[in-house]
Amino acid sequence: MIEERAIIAQTLSAIRRDLGLVLQPELSSPESRTKAAMMSDMLGHLVAWHQEQSGTAEQARYSGHFTSARRDAAEAPARLSALEVEVTPTRLAAFLAAKVPGWGGAVVEHIDRATAGYSKDTFLFRATRPGGDVLDAVIRRDLPFGPGENTVVDEFALLRALEGRGLPLAEPLWCEPDPHWLGQPFIVSRRMAGDNGTGAWEQDEVVRRSVCGELAVILARLHTISPDVLGAAPDRDPAAQILAYVAEWEDRWRRHKIHESPILERGFAWLRANVPADLERLSIIHSDVGFHNILTDEGRITALLDWEFSHLGDPAEDLGYCRQFVEPLMPWDAFLAAYRAAGGGGYSDAGARFYEVWRGVRNAVSCSVAWNGFLTDRYPALKMGYQGVPLYRRFVLDVADKLERMNA
Fold first, then answer.
1. pTM above 0.85, yes or no
2. Nearest to 156 by CA among 312, 309, 313, 307
């Protein structure tokens, strides 16, 4: 008799095959193509789970919780629409008229929802007010249930504090904490020129070195800004503050985890035991530095985006995070030399190892929280399920790999 898991694997594999061969080539909008790619990736991981005859205990628990959380697909769209308010020109125009001086009677010409990003919703829009002034801007809106448990309200305050300090920022225009207007708190920033990613310039060696060198200078500037601008001086014991930050994320994971994870248990234990002890002071760090969060235009960086994970921390966290993106484009020693020449501090091997593990643990926790929101109907959106299936697994395996190498 064919086992149930084999039947499920074969069925999912057939669905994935037709999705790729028949449906995806017919899709035209960026959003539909992105969602189809997510579906294909999720199906691929589910096929692998069901094909494994003797998976690890962690995989078995995870797969079991997924199976036990089957839902009525016909009801899912209704549940999601009840949580996720549609951003329409009418709603946005009403907000502008009521809350932004000088924008009464403005015409919102179009609103486009961006497909990228897992922790916030992003919308691009153009508005024209009666005098003819045109505004191209970006909305960042909190999710109904966010994986980072942070809010754009705090991000807006940070951006305002960092304005005028030599950093390429998308100018923060307005902050609206009241969910009445668009369903959740949101901020509006001026839209900056350029695109994220490296596709437009990664083949040009001169531009590669220029952009990466500019990023090194930007990070040095950020890390030398006094934390006083945020209204709070750093703790006298930097190691203790980093340990407290790790504990905050561990608590977040324990409150929201759907299943146990021996790997993340080991990861948190390793982090607690290996906090860098040689750090003299904390700095403002971005905590998600990569070209997915950087706009470039004509070989120049125009904006460093998405500051929701920013906190007072070790500059080595930013450096270690961006290294995976920079090193394929520019020798790492050259990047560090540019960083130090611009006033940046040291970068120790011990700190680098710590933040390699931290990166995977933090990202796995974010995905675990998103998975909780997906399964408990607090936000049953596809991108939350996508974080909970393939992305979570990749980050956990990355943590396991890093820990194994540390102990080798």
1. yes
2. 307
